[in-house]
Design brief:
8-stranded mixed barrel, TIM Barrel, binds calcium ion, single chain, about 750 residues, binds ligand C2E
Length: about 750
């Protein structure tokens, strides 16, 4: 047996109202009589005990067992009391005694429930339980009261006991709830007033109508407070399907006791008393309970709608989130394309203009994307800080046609945000195919993995059009990366990575003044692997720390052995950002310098610009520390990245290495030459040494000389040589052609 999927509040309150009316009719027509109703109520409780395991699934097994037992005991007791109204146990009447006994397990449950009441989704049950218990106690009391003939000492005594028991119980409930959950304080007070008022009314209205009416009014007031301030169901926070399930279960869990309370209230209704106010009170309480149920259910609905919205949407952009994307990918009904979009350049906006502007740009990008994608029948998601995803109908080769427009939609974003326009923001994209009918979990994961690989391909493929479609080739590249990583880890562990040395030459004298150490790796299985390939792989896996340390140590060792330092010639070693940021890097450098007794200024550490872009990065501290040690700091590949100059006077930089691509542009026309001239001028003015990389021809060398660039490096002079040829290179004097081009 399963629970109803969605117990609609309207249906619920309608049925509660129907039961109320039925009860009121019963009360007026005196049919069925109290005894029959008691039997019926008892049977309902017995049946309900079977349902307890269904509605109390959240609790531990012991809790469920306790609840089942309590409901069954109370059901059996009530049934027995109804069946044998005139039986006696010795001097005592049977019905109240058996009912009192059968109430003990219920009391135990309620006490337990109150004790463990916490802010959270248990919060409503103690209250419901307290209402229920108070009603039951009142029912028994009323039973005894009626039995005693409404008047006289016995009746008064029964009534007084009843008032005291109920009041103290409700007071206890109120205290516990108020301590645990201050929000419910008023609710608890309402409950207490209502219960006490009801009892007063029940006990005294026959003899003292005015006091009785006051009691009834208090009862109504308490009911009103309960209706208005009734506990709202607290929901599981994480939302999603789990929250929706929890809400449903709670709703049913709330409906069952409420129904049972109604059944017990019926006992009041059919008691032999013609008190219209009493009936009004009963009607009010029941209608109030129904209303409260409806209000709570509506609040639950709204909250659960909000929660499931929150669970599936990104608060910043309002787009659907990663969970929603996974849901959409789980059971695709047609061929679609998944596009993962990475926004680049956002960090600059955030760093310079602040987080708020960065978020504004993201919001604009999200809006543009949605505007662009919705007419294509697609949907837009934000899956990470700077990553969006699109699901578009059709296979990737078809969808790829829309991608230039999609990428433009992202690039347009900063122009829509005041002040952000001067920072270019771009997007890279990876596409994969989503096939219908793929098994559930694999279906959700595979396209994501593929699109991610394609995105990575787009990222590492600078000549691409900004996006890449997942293919066998992309998969093969990924496999190759994994292989390289695996083999490289072994090579680093075995010290199998070698170091070669490329001379750096004074452009005017032709003398070698420095060597750059370059990692070389020949693998038995993969053959020679270029550092252009394996360094990025090493960086991804942190392997670069061990690799870098090995290269640094080996380079210094070999250069030292070849007499490089003795000749006053410098050594440059490449250091990756990851390596620079690894703990203890400066200590490693210090230790190597002291082991070989090398003047620190003879060691240059080549870093790329990315190190300096993030002004909060710990890398800056390390750079400063290294410079304080006396090492020289070189900016590698200058002119390829951001070419921000700001950090040049903020940080200890000694050397600027002009990238090969700029060198090539010297002779290919265009304004490459003026760019290099400007950079060289600036560097000279800041007192930095300029190294022109990738000098391959005399022409290039001559141009560099004419620009007053100090040093050159490139195949014109020498490619990187093995360590045993370093001594030879030291002696070499490279011809300097005099012509100015
Ligand atoms: P890089 O630091 O810019 O190194 C210079 C690269 O240019 C070297 O490639 C060198 O062989 C090449 N090169 C030198 N002269 C010429 C020339 O005239 N024309 C052309 N076309 N190329 C020339 P290599 O050795 O393949 O290194 C590539 C990159 O790998 C390096 O670029 C550097 O970023 C990285 N790398 C190499 N060794 C290491 C290392 O030990 N640690 C780290 N972190 N990176 C390294
Ligand atoms: Ca370098
Ligand atoms: Ca370089």
């Amino acid at each position: 047996m399963t629970l109803p999927r969605q117990a609609r509040p309207a249906a619920l309150s309608a049925s509660v109202l129907a039961v109320t009316l039925a009860l009121l009719v019963c009360a007026h027509t005196r049919w069925p009589d109290a005894q029959h109703l008691k039997v019926a109520t008892g049977l309902v409780w017995l049946a309900a005990s079977a349902a307890v395991p269904l509605v109390r699934r959240r609790g531990s097994r012991a809790t469920v067992a306790r609840h089942t037992l309590a409901a069954a005991a109370w059901g059996a007791g009530t049934t027995a009391a109804g069946l044998f109204p005139h039986a006696a146990l010795g001097p005592l009447p049977f019905p109240p005694v058996v009912q009192a006994l059968s109430l003990l397990p219920v009391a135990a449950v309620v006490v337990q429930q109150l004790r463990t009441a916490r802010v959270g989704d248990h919060a409503r049950s103690p209250l419901v339980e307290a209402v229920f218990l108070a009603t039951v106690l009142a029912g028994i009391g009323w039973d005894g009261y009626a039995r005693a003939g409404f008047t006289g000492d016995a009746g008064w005594a029964a009534g007084t006991v009843l008032v005291l028991v109920t009041a103290s119980l409700v007071a206890a409930a109120t205290t516990v709830l108020a301590v645990e959950q201050p929000r419910l304080r008023l609710c608890g007070i309402g409950l207490a007033i209502g219960a006490v008022g009801t009892e007063v009314s029940a006990v005294v209205s026959a003899e003292q109508p005015v006091t009785g009416d006051v009691g009834t009014a208090l009862g109504l007031l308490g009911a009103l407070v309960l209706v208005v301030r009734g506990p709202r169901t607290r929901l599981v926070r994480h939302g999603g399907a789990a929250a929706a399930r929890a809400v449903r279960r709670q709703r049913v869990a709330g409906a069952v006791p409420a129904g049972l309370v109604l059944a017990d209230v019926a006992l009041f209704a059919v008691s032999p008393r013609d008190d219209v106010l009493m009936l009004v009170f009963l009607g009010g309480t029941v209608v109030g309970a129904a209303l409260r149920q409806a209000v709570t259910a509506r609040a639950v609905d709204r909250t659960s709608d909000r929660l499931s919205f929150q669970a599936l949407h990104d608060p910043l952009t309002g787009l659907q989130n990663r969970t929603a994307l996974r849901d959409a990918l789980t059971e695709p009904d047609r061929v679609q394309s998944l596009v993962l979009l990475e926004v680049t350049g956002l960090d600059d906006v955030t760093d310079v203009l602040g987080v708020a502007v960065g978020e504004e740009v993201l919001r604009a990008a999200a809006a543009n994307l949605r505007e662009h994608v919705t007419p294509l029948g697609g949907s837009t998601y934000r899956v990470r800080h700077d990553e969006f995803a699109l699901l578009l109908p059709g296979a990737p080769d078809k969808v790829a046609r829309h991608l230039p427009g999609v990428l433009d939609a992202v690039s347009a974003a900063p122009l829509q945000v005041p002040g952000a326009g001067r920072f270019p923001v771009d997007a890279l994209a990876g596409l994969s195919r989503v096939d219908p009918g793929t098994p559930t979990d694999g279906g959700a994961t595979l396209p994501l993995v593929h699109a991610d690989l394609a995105l990575r391909d787009a990222r590492t493929n600078p000549r691409g059009q900004g996006y890449s479609v997942f293919s066998g080739e992309v998969a093969a590249q990924h496999a190759r990366r994994l292989k390289v990583r695996e083999r490289l880890a072994a090579a680093v562990a075995d010290g199998a990575v070698d170091v070669h040395f490329q001379p750096i030459v004074d452009l005017t004298t032709g003398r070698v003044v420095k060597f750059e150490a370059l990692a070389r790796w020949d693998d038995a299985e993969l053959g020679r692997v270029s550092p252009v390939e394996f360094v990025p792989v090493a960086e991804e896996s942190n392997l670069v720390v061990a690799l870098g340390e090995h290269v640094l140590r080996t380079a210094v060792d070999r250069a030292h052995a070849a007499g490089v330092f003795d000749a006053g010639v410098r050594l440059a070693v490449n250091v990756s950002v990851v390596q620079l940021q690894s703990p203890g890097f400066a200590d490693v450098v210090r230790q190597i310098l002291s082991t070989y007794r090398i003047a620190p200024e003879l060691l240059t550490l080549e870093l790329t610009e990315s190190v300096f872009l993030d002004s909060d990065s710990p890398a800056e501290r390390v750079v400063t520390e290294l410079a304080r040690l006396g090492c020289q700091i070189a900016i590698d590949d200058f002119g390829t990245g951001y070419s921000a100059f700001g950090y040049l006077d903020r940080l200890p930089v000694h050397v600027l290495k002009i990238d090969r691509s700029l060198t090539q542009s010297l002779t290919t026309g265009g304004n490459g030459r003026s760019v290099v001239t400007a950079v060289v001028d600036l560097a000279n003015r800041l007192g930095l040494t300029v190294v022109v990389e990738g000098v391959e021809t005399d022409e290039e060398a001559a141009i560099c000389r004419s620009m007053q660039a100090g040093l050159g490096q490139g195949w014109l002079y020498s490619a990187a040589v093995t360590a045993d040829r370093v001594a030879e290179e030291l002696q070499r004097e490279h011809p300097v052609s005099g012509g100015v081009w």
